[in-house]
Design brief:
homohexamer, alpha/beta, UDP-N-acetylmuramoyl-L-alanine:D-glutamate ligase, four-stranded mixed beta sheet, 38% helix, 22% strand, kinase (chains A, B, C, D, E, F), PfkB_Carbo_kinase (chains A, B, C, D, E, F), PfkB_dom (chains A, B, C, D, E, F), 5-dehydro-2-deoxygluconokinase (chains A, B, C, D, E, F), nucleotide-binding (chains A, B, C, D, E, F)
């Protein structure tokens, strides 16, 4: 495996019409999960990725499993759990730019992930382990599972990539701050958004915040600055990679996951940090121009075209 | 109020296409609840009915509340609970005649109904209290709530109508048998299906089973025999009311609730038992010829037309 | 023109789901009109047909006009009326086999058809004039228009074909009976259903009823007996043409119009009465096996195939 | 009742796709009526509102009645009329920003509203009577009904709120101008849009036009200036309340009704005129950010959030 | 006929949702063809137009034929070919402004058009023959057919109108350049877009490019400059006609065809070149504000309204 | 691999409504291919199956590949061909029980399968090679490819299973008869339908026909007799396995593929011939009770339930 990731994927239901959901009577469903998005993004770019999770041994679990496997991700580590349900959630578009989410995920199969679900040898053979801050918020055993996976990675020299992915609905702020900081300490690469950085360490410039992450223990920090691009910092390199112009944001969800997939694909291809981050920006931009989390994830040739032909200027300020 | 009822109503999602739900990506939703069906059936026939429940203070709860109120049912006793979700469930049509249900109702708002939610004076002013065997299966506090409502009814001379509505997915058989039998003892009128009767008291003819119900304490027993009709027994009357011929069963769900509404409307109109049960048969037949639980519930004039013009023969065997 | 016809065509709205329309929130629309169905049926079989009518000069009128012209019917005599609306109606499927119709056609453009709208030379050049009993029910001027068209036809030796098409919602029984009888007297060929025949002349066998029609003035009577087939009677021929077996009636509407188109196509092709009526039976059968009024109308080769290969036995009893 | 209102509500059909309706074959339907929108807006904000009307005793009438009752509005005064149809209309989106409406409402049930339909005691117990300029345009008896309701209100000290709601398709300009002016004279509060004000009294600044309304007899004038906000004038107060920024207008219909509901809710809550008008602006803005007339109407907590957090500056020029 | 045109029309399938088509499972279909769009545009403006083509003798061919005939275009010259399929294509909206097309048109019925399919007398009686550069790209026999039609036109003094409509997917650039240039030489009026002009003759100002077209043999050149408008040049007149402001481009496809229809309608109405080109601009603008190729094509009164009321300034620079 | 199969899978489009496709404007698409159905059926029952094919390197090809891989089939041998399109077809339901198919598959990617696409070692490691009579009908190179795969199988002792799957639209009868007979000779197990058997060898009883197959070279023959069941014959066993009662045939397509998957799963599980054939009958019955080709394919536990609980009697006549 080039990249192994770990987390919950749910069935997402969206009403066919915008406005409050009480007026909706038609819904579409999709597969949605931050970590599986990253795995799919990498598979589409030609890399080998694997996804570790639990799903209910029910129709929704089987649908999710088939979808992710169909996208070329290795799902051999996924457990179908007969004793718990697949999580689901509803997403309403209340008004332009105003979304609201309702979960039915308490006690979900994924929330029962436990350290024993992680196969050390599976992690050991990967180049990167990717984890997010959603998983430890789901349950204590999920938290333990993430720690275990990280321990295995570190024991075998596998790079740990951490995306904080703060979800304030899932846990209290103080707990989130404590655990996310702990995970920053254990990560080789962290990919926070600027608001997440400020949530953790208070206000500051990207440079200042990145330095704080480094002081906490992460060797490489890539700070996502929205449409503007990203700032990266490690021992070897430092700078801004500007974002790509997007004529219209069709669906913003999944941009961060696309960014992660882009950056990791760049590193796996041996790009330098600047070009890898630029690739992250490009994938993120392509994702927001299509509906859904994964529809916009590009194949390699479309990605190269996009980077070559779109307006983007890379600056070392 | 002519009839007050009590129970959980959920948001029902059904895939647009038959077959296993993993292949579905479009769903429609409806309001579904046995007790609210009865209340709606009575309102449509021109009676005053009220429904006591808890709903999540969320979009689904508000949708359910508006729908039932729109149908003319008094919802003044419904509590919107900010701390719990509205229950929901999915219904797949796996094959012709083979349905499968999946619940997301654990810890739902309705499962938190508690005795204090029932206003004694509200019950006291009703002619009938209608309860089902679903509610005590939801939680201990739901069980207590049903008992409380029955106590209030009995204290004020309100007739207690009990429909066992056995749901084996919700509780173990022995517990179901124990509680349902307890409720039979407390009821004035019981409306079991023949399979439910056999679940409770073993095999037997309708006459034998009805006698057993009477021995347990119910004064009036109306045993539903599916399309065949129903057998009724009390101190004053006894006999069979044959069912109505139905050219095609479009959707069988809600037939029993329609039956209850029909019988109660007949009793409220002062019909004798035989004619009231016939009316129950008619409403049940009309419900199964339309999709959904409540779409087929008739207004008075359509019901009278139906009884007058359809093939049905009433026999005293 | 081989056949010219005259009448109202409306926009039909049907809810996507069965059951009472109050629960519907999605509707499909189609073009629906008995006379235009006949014209389309003939055009599809390769004949030249023309349709005289008024439509509102609005989007629905333009849709209807384009649809009928697209099917190959001459619409040069259609008037788009700026001062009136195109009629529309809703059709609910209340229960299996139970339909209910609601019209918004009062004062519609077609109800304003007047004698001056009919071009004598257009009628004069036709082989057949086809009219139905719907048109005179719409308004006095519509009634006059039908009489005028018939007068033109008779003056020029054009055969008058009359389909009673009784619509009891549109006029009182006594008026319907009077006007339809008057039109029977003026027709060369009448195509009543058995119920219509009994409405006009009381109960009787097909033979008796056909004789009554002949006594009233129609030279050829073809009595439609539903799936059973039809009975025909004129100076030259008499007998039954049996119907074709239909595995499932998908949508019964339009069967009579298809029957008319089939019979007329047979007569235009020089078939004897028996074979022409058989063709009517075949087209009617094909229409009920497809949704909508015109979807099942066959092209010549499919019709010949159907007659050749399906189970049907023609008997002279 | 806090507010009683009176008027026609129709079934609205909209094609699923934009462009001329002749190309549409799928339609959705909704409940649409200016006065019932106001009643629903008030109910959602926690007030008691009642709606007086006639509907056809048909499926559309029953649907409208159930919908409005479901929203918490008192519909006890609604008459289901067996002799007339529920009005309906179609709304096409011809091009961006270009809408076209087609009515089938002539002779509708609501157009038969008559003075005797209004219960004096029902009006007498209200705080406000809300009427619009649509109703008197429907028929003479509707005009008389509005006058009667106003007379009852004035006799019992109930405040009369009048929204001109000019519909030039429904009556000739000179008649509209005469009747609307008459109603302005009888109203306590008038809520005209700026174009309506100019239609009635010619061009002028908001201040000038408001003064003219006052001279005509209205004691309070609130002049709606579109997205810009509103100008208010009465004995006690005068000024501009600026509008709220809206990122995208999803559906402009219903904004004025939301404005009325917002202002009335503010007055009922004892706000001063400036804050009440600001609340009107806020509700109007929230309505245009959701599809449909009522989907965007807020509950109290969302309204307060919106006013607190959105960009709006209130100026006394 | 006022205008006769010639070319392929296909069945167009578009996924209901944007994004890559692999995620689509619902498609809508429409009729799409540049030349039939022009014919429909002219018919809607009240002119007589005819369309020559081949279609498969299959359901799609019959649908296309009925649709175009329904729009009032003469389809008497259309051949239904039993030995070939109707072409079809799929159109994906990959991202805002990024479309991708996939054809299934190789060996289609239209690609089998041959010189013998063109009736000399049909061309001879027209005022204009309209051809595009798509047809010669389909096959050698299509190329020959276009030449034959042009020869007939020139022999009978019928004006030849040529729209290059470059489709680089259909043939190699060098061949396209050669054939399109040949057709320019044979045309009286050419209607190239600016990119097409540059493809043929290299970069240049509109004036320079127009002169080159004239030198090649076309007597009138109308150069389309997108939203900006158009530049026209012939012996008698020269100048710019500015485009119309469009609030939102709903669907850009069909704009050029609408432009052609507008210009030709103007010339047929005897307008001078400047006003005819302005009319072309107006029709093109109206087409892009509606979905589909033909939905936005205006009737004469809407066109006149649009030209009168919209912002457009006509300048002679 | 337990079973390797080989063949074309296409994108299937079906109109949302029955009737001739010219009236359809909404289509759904699915993945459809006889051989991939078998592979999916086996994967769902827990076996390892692999599918060899070519697909266009386009969106439809990628959709098909992802779907089949998602179902758990090994698609490592699938080639995405940049030079050819994925085949597609349309399926109309003309009337109850009357379907019509239209292909766009000429020159499709799968028709370019060639012997070099088959990896000998991949076949060598399988227990069974499954081929059908569709593939050799697609092209000469497809025919050669099937022969090559069979040669590899026989060289390595892999059992060859052959399902004739006669498609008379794809090739002339004499050629079909010749090639299918040749393949029968090379197969270990043949699974013809009774009509296919009669097409190849003339009329006869199942016993006679089975003997003929054996004489031609197949060691095991399983003759499918529709709902009645199947007759099997080889050296060791002989008899009838009766079919299962099916309350309603929802979609008959895919029954034969399900039968093959069921039989092969039985043989892989070591069942005797009679029980394996019964399992084939069961899977076939389950497939026809769900829409689509693969939706009804059961997992092992549902299959066992079905066999245990349904009415079926196995007789040795």
């Amino acid at each position: 495996m080039d990249v192994v990731t770990l987390g919950e994927t749910m069935m997402l239901f969206t009403p066919d019409n915008p406005g409050p959901m009480r007026y909706a009577d038609r819904f579409s469903n999709r597969v949605a999960g931050a970590e599986s998005n990253v795995a799919i993004g990498l598979a589409r770019l030609g890399f080998q990725s694997g996804w570790i999770s639990r799903l209910g041994d029910d129709e929704f679990g089987k649908k999710i499993n088939a979808f992710i496997r169909g996208e070329g991700v290795d799902t051999s580590q996924v457990i179908l759990d007969e004793t718990a349900d697949t999580g689901l959630f509803f997403k309403e578009k209340l008004a332009p730019g105003e979304w609201r989410v309702k979960y039915y995920r308490q006690g979900s199969a994924a929330s029962r992930l436990k350290p024993g679900d992680v196969d050390e040898s599976y992690i050991a053979e990967a180049n990167y382990l990717h984890v997010t801050g959603i998983t430890p918020a789901l349950s204590d055993s999920c938290y333990e599972t993430v720690l275990t996976a990280i321990d295995y990675a570190r024991a075998h020299g596998v790079n740990v990539v951490f995306d904080p992915n703060l979800r304030r609905k899932l846990w209290p702020d103080h707990k989130a701050r404590k655990v996310l900081t702990e995970l920053v300490q254990k990560a080789d690469i962290v990919l926070p958004g600027i608001e997440e950085a400020e949530f953790l360490f208070g206000n500051g410039t990207p440079e200042e915040l990145a330095r704080t992450f480094r002081e906490k223990g992460a060797s490489t920090v890539i700070l996502k600055l929205g449409g503007t691009g990203a700032y990266y910092l490690n021992n070897a390199a430092e700078g801004y990679a500007e974002g790509f112009e997007v004529p219209e944001v069709v669906d913003p969800v999944g941009a961060g996951d696309g960014f992660s997939a882009g950056v990791l694909s760049g590193l796996l291809d041996g790009l330098d940090m600047k070009d890898a981050v630029q690739r992250g920006n490009a994938v993120g931009a392509m994702v927001v121009m299509a509906p859904g989390d994964v529809e916009g994830l590009p194949e390699k040739d479309r990605l190269v075209d996009f980077i070559t032909n779109r307006n983007q200027s890379d600056v070392e300020r």
